[in-house]
Amino acid sequence: MSFKHIISRDNPVFKQLKKFADNARERRAEGKTLLDGVHLIESYMDTFGEPDLIIIPEGKSSVEATGLIQNLADISTIMLPTLMFAELTPVANATGILALVKIPQLPVPEQPEFVLMLEDIQDPGNIGSMLRTAAASGVDVVYLSTSCTDVWSPKALRGGQGAQFVLPIVERVDLINALQEFDGNSYATAMQGESLYAQDLSAPTAFVIGNEGAGLRKQTMAATSKRITIPMANTALGSVESLNAGAAAAVCLFERMRQASLT
User: Fold this and answer.
1) Reading across the β-sheet that carries 3-5, which strands appear in turn?
2) Closest among 207, 220, 199, 198 to 248, alpha carbons compared
3) Does the keyword Cell membrane apply (predicted)?
């Protein structure tokens, strides 16, 4: 094990870590990202082994972080001043440990039967939450359009809480081509359409969720089998305009899981 105490922002190791924290292009180019917190690091280790590097702050870490640091005593470690450490973490109250890891590549099923497609989702916490929901509901693979935010950013990883380590994800996808190649029924979520609950979701199913504000592009919507909507109460009173993208995804995905459990 090697241990370094870095105190300068001009240090090349810190500069590289800052790029991994802030820059999607750098993460893609190097195939690495930063994990924040004990839970994410342990989730990664359960499947993919030890991280490449451990980063800790000066001062006291949480009890959980201290225990993990002791278990990873053979891994190269750097210590940073608190303010420098804070520049790398996506949360205000960090747990006191970061890990540099290789971005995993999970195999994609040849003929997936349960698919989530996301178009132009911009908020990293939102996309992380949707990936978490997809993993929990049994989705086979998630396709992300070229304009989606990076799912390997520290904030998206924090939102996913380990979903990225168990769920096959394909980024920078032409969704129209993906829809044309999908051997099943594809459903575009929209403000107006047939009720989600009127659909037979027992066949191979793909749900397509659009941008948080703008929704799906017209071309993408036209490439799907059907437009669907989620019935809501109180819409006539104007109190509820629509569900947000994350909530809509959760309702659709778990309805499909419910129907599949009945067959």
Assistant:
1) 3-5, 77-80, 53-57, 98-102, 32-36
2) 207
3) no
pLDDT digit string (tens) for the chain, length 263 residues: 678 899 999 999 999 999 999 999 999 999 999 999 889 999 999 999 999 999 999 976 667 777 777 777 788 899 999 999 999 987 766 678 899 999 999 999 999 999 999 999 999 999 999 999 999 999 999 999 999 999 999 999 999 999 999 999 999 999 999 999 999 999 999 888 999 999 999 999 999 999 878 789 999 999 999 999 998 876 554 444 567 889 999 999 999 999 998 87
Say if residues 137 and 254 touch (Cβ distance below 8 Å): yes
Torsional class of 80: left (φ above 0), alpha (ψ -120 to 50), beta (otherwise): beta
Name the residue type at position 263: T
* CA–CA dist 189, 113 (Å, integer): 18
The CATH number that domain 114-262 falls under is 3.40.1280.10
C-beta of residue 195 within 8 angstroms of C-beta of residue 235: no
Rg (CA), the chain: 21
Domain 3-102 has CATH 3.40.50.300: no
Residue 180: which of 210, 143, 151 has the closest Cα? Answer: 143
The answer to whether domain 3-102 and domain 114-262 are alike in fold is no
